[in-house]
Design a protein that fits this description.
By secondary structure, the chain is mainly β. It has one domain: outer membrane lipoprotein receptor (LolB), chain A (Clam). About 15% of the residues lie in helices and about 45% in strands. It contains 4 helices and 13 strands.
Length: about 240
């Protein structure tokens, strides 16, 4: 493991403790311009999310006012009713976004795919960085909010479904995540700057509860608006 990654993971509670749990569930409130832009305003404003800690799987419940339940894996996304009956599925979901731009509307099950990769990535970071095949490169300090943050370029292998192959994380002097940059490949490679705050400790692990995502400019600076996505987490539980 890259020594900086080990330091970051230890600051968040350590890989040994993380490995002792299998799933995480949290209450999720979301806002921002993205949901209306993609044709799904309000569907995931107030819901619950569950992710697997050691494999790529996530579920939102309820998925909309109809009380549906989503199931995301990289190869298959499903929407089920409350009794577990499959109402819709999408195999090889990433391929369905071919040719998409930022303004392209998503189907309901495409939304489930995006919400799945997003929350699985967010909730397993930084422990995800310890996965075999993930490449890490330190790219120099970054000055923001009167602080100096350490930046790491992260290159993910094709086996990991996430926003983009290359991402950048920023950590503060305590090795806690402060910002996470990526290009949303399934939305025309739209660049995002994702700010992270509101840490809480849950069962010996540290999790941010406040996330705000803004457009990212070519020089790496974030735009002040629009607010693309807001995420607030509560009631985090590990089993």
């Amino acid at each position: 493991m890259h020594p900086l990654v080990e330091k970051i993971i230890n600051a968040h509670g350590g890989l040994e403790r993380w490995s002792s749990f299998s799933t995480l569930t949290a209450h999720l409130k979301q806002g921002g311009a993205l949901w209306m832009l993609k044709g799904h305003a309000g569907r995931l404003d107030d819901t619950n999310v569950t992710v697997s800690l050691h494999e790529a799987w996530a579920s939102h419940h309820p998925f909309g006012k109809e009380g549906l339940v989503s199931s995301f894996t990289p190869d298959l996304v499903q929407l089920k009713d409350a009794a577990g009956n499959v109402l819709e599925d999408l195999h090889n979901p990433r391929a369905s976004f071919a040719g998409h731009a930022l303004e392209t509307l998503w189907s309901q099950i495409q939304l489930a795919y995006f919400a799945g990769i997003a929350m699985w990535t967010y909730l397993t970071m930084p422990f995800l960085l310890a996965t075999p095949g993930v490449q890490i490169e330190e790219v120099g300090p970054w000055q923001e909010k009167e602080e100096t943050w350490t930046r790491l370029k992260v290159t993910f292998p094709p086996t990991i479904a996430t926003h983009s192959t290359i991402q950048t994380i920023y950590v503060d002097a305590h090795s806690l995540l402060k910002r996470h940059d990526y290009d949303v490949e399934i939305a025309g490679n739209t660049p995002g700057a994702h700010y992270i705050d509101g840490y809480v400790e849950v069962q010996g692990l540290k999790f941010p509860t406040i996330r705000r995502i803004f457009p990212r400019q070519p020089d790496g600076q974030a735009m002040a608006e629009p607010l693309v996505v807001s995420i607030d987490l509560a009631d985090i539980r590990l089993v």
